Amino acid sequence: MLEIGIRTELGPRLRTYATLLPLGLGDLDATIAHEAADNPWLELVNRPLSGLGGDELRTIAAPGPSLLDHLEAQLAASGVRGAVLRAARYVSEALDEHAYLRDDIATVARCADATQAQASQAVALVQRCEPTGVAARSLGERFRLQLDEAGERGSLAFALTFELDALAAEGSASFASARELAFDELARALRRLRACDPDPARDFARTVDRVFPEIVIERDGDSLISSIDGRFWPDVRLASLEVTRDLSQPMRTARSRARLIVEALTRRKTTLERLAVALLDRQRNYFISGGDPRELLPLSGRELAREVGCAESTISRAITARYAATPFGTISVRSLIARRPGAVGVTTAAVRHRVSELIQSFPQSSDEVIARALRLSGIRLARRTVAKYRHELGLASSRERGRT
């Protein structure tokens, strides 16, 4: 990721926690084993992953979902049909390993047998899918997609996404001076940019063919419950070494480091437990439905942070490379973060699907009539928004539909 001038300094306790929180079990196991090998104060009591063979790993760990599968499920639920859907599927398949789109619009149109207008609609459709930022053509566009979703289009951070190269070349102080920006204002905008995700597709299977879900959502009779699966977490504790007055400084430093590791692992467990409870509470209908994307409620990282009781940056780390075992299979935790459309209480995919259903049921109805019908079910959309969704779905206007 582009390194931007100002860095927020973290204390050793928070820095250790921030390092361990986003690690998947494989990386966590390796990191703790390395720490224990170098630190006599850190005793590795049990390392469950090290005793598992390949066959056992395949039995215990479910394969991770691919980004292509995740996008296809959203495209199928979008209600879009025809050339736009065909082009959107091409776009999904054309993404590189970091989910960037390297093909231009003309190439997409030619390869998908679509017009350039349809290809542009297809790119926009994939860019509205989760995780936010896929199908971007640059890092700047990726950050713009994420800031736009957060309602920050008019912010300084959004404007800076067009100036990332200049920021890297000039440095923050020179950049601010040349553009007569207050340095503290620029610093705030840069902190916001650093909260954006430069690689939103990292959670999805690429070369890795197995994952270990740490969050579990399961049925308990007629209810659903959440829990944490810590069977494969490395078990460490402070070693029982004698502490004397003449303990050397390197040994004192190692002892402090060991304490930070043990404390960070405990805090990591607490965060994941709270995260599991919050996700089940907010997306209960989604789990009950067996994973129907139309049942996903709007949920931002900021809202989830409030429910968990932590910073938004902590949530971003907590959902990184994190998976949940559910009654309908293993899913990425990030896939439960659903964007909010112009309607209240439902996601864009659900609203678009409802617009498609109404148009198919009442083909002579105008966009205004469809908007009124949606309002009766509690979905408030302007006529122009209905027209926008209809256009994205590849559906003709009521006047054109009346001629067929």
Global outline: globular
- Strand tally: 6
Strand arrangement, largest sheet?
A: 3-2-5-6
Q: Provide mean pLDDT, rounded.
A: 82
The sequence of SSEs as H and E is: HHEHHHHHHHHHHEEEHHHHEEHHHH
Contiguous runs where pLDDT drops below 50 for at least 5 residues? 1-9, 54-64, 205-209, 340-344
Binned, the helix content reads 40-55%
Work out the radius of gyration.
24 Å
Distance from N terminus to C terminus (CA atoms, Å) equals 52 Å
Q: What count of domains describes the coordinates? A: 4
Structural category is alpha+beta
Number of helices: 20
Instruction: Give the biggest beta sheet.
Output: 4 strands, mixed
How much of the sequence lies in strands comes to 5-15%
In short:
The protein is α+β, with helices and mostly antiparallel strands and 404 residues long. It has helices at residues 12-20, 25-38, 54-60, 67-78, 82-94, 105-111, 116-127, 139-149, 156-160, 164-170, 172-178, 183-194, 249-282, 284-288, 301-308, 312-318, 348-361, 367-376, 383-392, 398-402, and strands at residues 42-46, 215-220, 223-228, 235-238, 323-326, 329-332.
Keywords, separated by commas or semicolons:
404 residues; alpha+beta; 4 domains; 52% helix; disordered N terminus
Describe the structure.
By secondary structure, the protein is of the alpha+beta class. It has helices at residues 12-20, 25-38, 54-60, 67-78, 82-94, 105-111, 116-127, 139-149, 156-160, 164-170, 172-178, 183-194, 249-282, 284-288, 301-308, 312-318, 348-361, 367-376, 383-392, 398-402; strands at 42-46, 215-220, 223-228, 235-238, 323-326, 329-332. It folds into 4 domains: 9-63 and 210-286 and 327-332, no CATH class; 67-127, no CATH class; 139-194, no CATH class; 348-402, Arc Repressor Mutant, subunit A (Orthogonal Bundle). Helices cover 52% and strands 7% of the residues. The strands form 2 sheets. Strands 3-2-5-6 form a 4-stranded mixed β-sheet. The chain has a two-stranded antiparallel sheet with strand order 1-4. Strand 5 and strand 6 (329-332) form a beta hairpin. Helix 1 (12-20) packs across helix 13 (249-282), helix 4 packs antiparallel against helix 5 (82-94) and helix 15 packs across helix 16. The protein is globular, with a radius of gyration of 24 Å. Residues 1-9, 54-64, 205-209 and 340-344 have low confidence and may be disordered.
